[in-house]
Design goal:
The structure holds two protein chains of two kinds.
Chain A lengths: L5 E12 L2 E12 L3 E5 L6 H8 L7 E6 L2 E3 L4 H6 L2 E4 L11 H6 L5 E4 L2 E4 L1 H15 L14 H14 L4 E5 L7 H16 L3 E5 L3 H7 L2 E6 L2 E7 L5 H9 L17 E10 L8 E6 L3 E6 L5 H8 L5 E8 L2 E3 L4 H6 L2 E4 L3 H4 L7 H12 L1 H5 L7 H14 L16 H13 L5 E5 L7 H16 L3 E5 L3 H7 L2 E6 L2 E7 L5 H9 L12
Parallel strand pairs in A: 3-10, 3-11, 6-9, 9-10, 15-20, 15-21, 18-19, 19-20
Antiparallel strand pairs in A: 1-2, 1-4, 4-5, 7-8, 11-12, 13-14, 13-16, 16-17, 21-22
Chain B lengths: L8 H7 L1 H16 L6 H26 L7 H15 L19 H23 L5 H20 L14 H8 L1 E2 L2 E2 H19 L1 H11 L1 H6 L4 H27 L10 H11 L11 H20 L4 H24 L3
Antiparallel strand pairs in B: 1-2
The chains are: A alpha/beta, B mainly alpha.
């Protein structure tokens, strides 16, 4: 192919954030009229690369050329004016305004009469209609955005990108919230766009879609480029192998597992939200660490938060120690010996302005107030201090004093404070949602050690993790979810990252033997 | 820790700004008019502050729990009417409830507190069950309460006449003294003590701070957020009810205009006293200083002969300054 067909060329792009090299000399070449898929595990650097292409990040090194001309985008608007548009995974339309205003927001056509710019409603309507006709989108430009389904919002977003004269449209997980029929609709529009010479960069975890729609596939891993291949040369197995191919190093404490009797039994649990998890059944044993793997959108967090009583369930049963239980709110779960370390430390974990002491004793003091008051009205300062000190020592939390506000601690230490909060309630079932995200290696190891100890004491541990090595290094069994379904359970000792990746990106359905082994 | 804690001048200023401003005000006023520094002035300011302290203590619960309440002032108004109407002498002319015997002073106080709790429960339900933003929910209840108190005030045979002829026992709550200390000041200080104990020594207090600091985290940790919201609004209502009774005892009267604007003064005192608008932060001492500061301004400026119209200018500046400082305090830690 000759060079004139190249529309976007990114060469040796590097980008660092404090403590992390997110991109290391990554290159990407996108040709006119093609769909170029970008693949990699969570954290491989796909989104960072695309944010560089769209002007949201400025690369530290490297060059971006559009149709051979070197560009440096100031911001997203600049990128759009120069022909690059991006459809984000989470759309943020202005729901209270109509479709055409959403498309032309920021550059509404106007007539100038005197000093006043009057909105030219008629031109806006006609332009929108012409745009939609061209793309064969059947939406009334005057309809309120809030009334549109997710798929239609996305089409409006695509039309908006086209209206900027986009030469390249980046789509980040465009099908994550679409039904199968809607995916077909999206693909029709994509084919129409490529026929008009527009290039699409398509980020997705869904391999069947990638192989169906794309012309070329670029694979990334740990911020580096693995390579670029024509789609017809690839198979799902090849893609997975290239996405995960890394060596394991010894970052986990040694442990012998003694898996005991079944303790937590979940049967046919289905979320009250129809877009969330469906028909999940699994059993957790005493002394077991159960890993829970899957990609973004697999509904793992939703499943665990529902079991913990934070989200409503539609049907299914939960049994603890053989007895059926009804968990309607976290208080119920805590009384039944459950603990949940949530994924978002800032949003639902720490209470930033309260002290380390307050944060440690919070859950236990509420669940077992008598331990602190001895049945009287006042809390025992001594008990609070001793409890907090116990976990500051045993988890080696680095804090100047117990009275230090938790927001002044590092992320790893905050996480350990939250672990201490739950350990204090002496849980039988400890659920950890991405427990090591965003914390340093040392703190990670301490958290792994704690999990190992818990299991050795016969407690049950569930760990949601998006990090393959962690899943394989820590788990007795690995449960993998995909789009709200349980796609398989693997033995932690023998599981390979290829197997996990395969289960995480394809749900075959229970009828086809979804449970491996 | 082997490192000595270094004195950080800037941090000291930020942490103790409220007390320093109060001190500076007193010093300035005393320099201009040395008589200001006397026991009687001190007593006057405390007496004038007492009702405001009780209102601010109630308001503080709401602010610490991360919520808002605009209905406090009108609740003071309604409860002052109810207390006064039940506290009239048996022989008072134009009696609100003709034929009602003279009741012990505690009865009108308890009834007005109970009314306050009822409206507190109402606010709490609207906020936590109907999910109406607290600011708007209490704006609505503020109007409703003013409507109710106007209706009550206009009830025949009273027909919107200021209530008077209050029993001595009741009036003593506002004007009497024990061992030279005004009873109303003793009541306000007792309320402060109770609130301090409740917020710092009990599980409930810790849970209120947790809900205000991070509602989601509190919920995950097993705190019943609904219960906490209902309790904070109820306690606030009880405080407003008590404040209303004290207000009518202090002035030996009541009209439906009582309490107007007290909620904004209370919010201002809380914020100036170091409560975070975002919730989760606040101390009894700070809020007390916040109330006193505003009363020192109004009393002190009059004392040295400055036009009362300047008072509002100064108060307004202090509120803006306090919030600007607050924003910096938390912004620097992010």
């Amino acid at each position: 192919m000759d060079n004139s067909s190249i529309v976007l060329e990114m060469t040796d792009i590097s980008k660092s954030f404090p403590g992390v090299k997110a991109l290391d000399k990554v290159s990407l070449t996108v040709r006119r009229g093609t769909v170029h898929a970008l693949m990699g595990e969570n954290g491989a650097g796909k989104s960072t690369l695309m944010k560089c292409a769209f002007g949201l990040y400025h690369p530290d090194e490297g060059e971006i050329r559009i149709e051979g001309e070197t560009v440096r985008f100031q911001d997203a608007r600049d990128a759009m004016d120069k022909g690059v548009s991006m459809i984000h995974q989470e759309l943020h339309p202005i729901r209270t305004r109509n479709v055409m205003e959403n498309i032309w927001v920021g550059r509404v056509p106007y007539k100038k009469i005197g000093p006043v710019h009057w909105v030219d409603e008629k031109k806006m309507y006609e332009d929108t209609r012409a745009l939609f006709e061209d793309l064969e989108i059947h939406i009334d430009p005057r309809q309120s955005m809030g009334e549109l389904a997710a798929a239609h919002c996305q089409l409006v977003e695509i039309a908006r990108a086209v209206s900027y004269g986009a030469k390249v449209i980046i789509m980040d997980e465009p099908t994550s919230s679409l039904t199968e029929g809607e995916v077909e609709l999206l693909f029709r529009i994509i084919r129409k766009l490529t026929a008009q010479g527009v290039a699409i960069i398509y980020i997705s975890h869904k391999m069947d879609e990638i192989l169906q729609i794309s012309n070329e596939v670029t694979i990334m891993r740990d911020g580096q480029l693995v390579g670029c291949w024509p789609a017809e040369e690839l198979t799902q197995d090849l893609i997975v192998a290239r996405m995960v191919g890394r060596k394991m190093d010894n970052r986990f404490p040694p442990r012998e597992s003694h898996v005991g009797e079944p303790w937590l039994e979940v049967e046919h649990l289905t979320s009250a939200n129809p877009h969330s998890f469906q028909d999940i059944s699994f059993t957790l044993h005493k002394g077991e660490i159960l890993g829970l793997g899957g990609l973004v959108g697999a509904q793992r967090t939703e499943l665990m938060e529902s079991i913990f009583g934070l989200r409503p369930v539609a049907s299914g049963t939960v049994r603890i120690g053989g007895k059926p239980v009804k968990i309607k709110c976290p208080q119920d779960a805590i009384q039944l010996g459950m603990a949940l370390l949530t994924e978002e430390r800032r949003a639902s974990g720490i209470i930033p302005m309260l002290s380390v002491q307050d944060n440690v004793v919070l859950a236990n003091q509420t669940a077992h107030t008598r331990q602190y008051t001895g049945g009287r009205l006042f809390l025992s300062e001594k008990k609070r201090r001793d409890d907090a000190q116990q976990y500051i020592d045993s988890l080696s939390i680095k804090t100047p004093t117990q009275k230090t506000q938790i927001q002044n601690l590092s992320g790893g230490n905050q996480q350990k404070v939250l672990l201490g909060r739950w350990m204090l309630t002496e849980p039988e079932i400890l659920i950890l949602d991405e427990p090591t995200r965003g914390i340093d290696v040392g703190a990670k190891y301490e958290i792994y050690t704690l999990m190992t100890q818990m299991a050795a004491e016969g407690k049950c541990v569930i760990m949601i993790s998006s990090e393959m090595p962690e899943l394989m290094g820590m788990s007795d069994r690995i449960m993998v979810m995909c789009e709200g379904h349980l796609s398989g359970i693997l033995d932690g000792k023998t599981a390979t990252d290829e197997q996990i990746m395969m289960l995480a990106s394809t749900y075959q359905g229970a009828a086809e033997g979804g449970v491996v082994q | 820790m082997t490192t000595k804690k270094k004195f950080n001048g800037k941090q000291f200023l930020v942490d103790y700004a409220i007390y320093l401003i109060l001190l500076a005000l007193v010093v300035i006023i005393t320099v201009i008019s040395p008589k200001f520094l006397s026991f009687s002035v001190f007593k006057d300011i405390l007496m004038q502050s007492s009702v405001r302290i009780v209102v601010a203590m109630g308001c503080m619960f709401i602010i610490i729990s991360g919520s808002a309440d605009l209905s406090g002032g009108r609740m003071v108004g309604l409860s002052s009417l109810i207390a006064a109407s039940l506290a009239q002498q048996a022989t008072a002319s134009l009696k609100f409830w003709p034929g009602l015997p003279e009741l012990p002073a505690i009865v009108p106080v308890l009834v007005s507190m109970a009314v306050g709790v009822c409206f507190g429960v109402f606010n709490g339900l609207v906020v936590s069950k109907l999910k109406v933003p607290a600011f708007l929910a209490t704006l609505g209840s503020q109007m409703m309460i003013f409507g109710f108190s106007s209706l009550y005030f206009n009830k025949a045979p009273n027909n919107s006449q200021p209530l008077g002829g209050l029993a001595k026992g009741f009036r003593d709550l506002g004007g009497g003294s024990i061992a030279g200390i005004p009873i109303i000041v003793i009541i306000a200080l007792t309320v402060m003590l109770l609130v301090w104990v409740m917020l710092t020594k009990t599980c409930l207090g810790k849970e209120i701070f947790a809900v205000g600091g991070n509602l989601e985290a509190a919920r995950v940790s097993g705190i019943n957020v609904f219960k906490i919201q209902m309790i904070t609004y109820s306690i606030a209502g009880a405080c407003y009810g008590l404040a209303g009774a004290l207000e009518s005892a202090r002035t030996s009267s009541a009209t439906s205009a009582y309490g107007q604007g007290y909620e904004l003064d209370a919010i201002a005192s809380c914020i100036v006293g170091g409560c975070s608008v975002a919730g989760g932060v606040g101390t009894v001492g700070g809020v007390f200083a916040g109330v006193i500061i505003f009363n020192v301004i109004s009393y002190g400026l009059t004392f040295i002969g400055i036009s009362p119209y300047w008072q509002n200018v100064v108060k307004g500046l202090i509120i803006i300054g306090a919030v600007a400082l607050d924003v910096r305090k938390y912004a620097s830690k992010k």
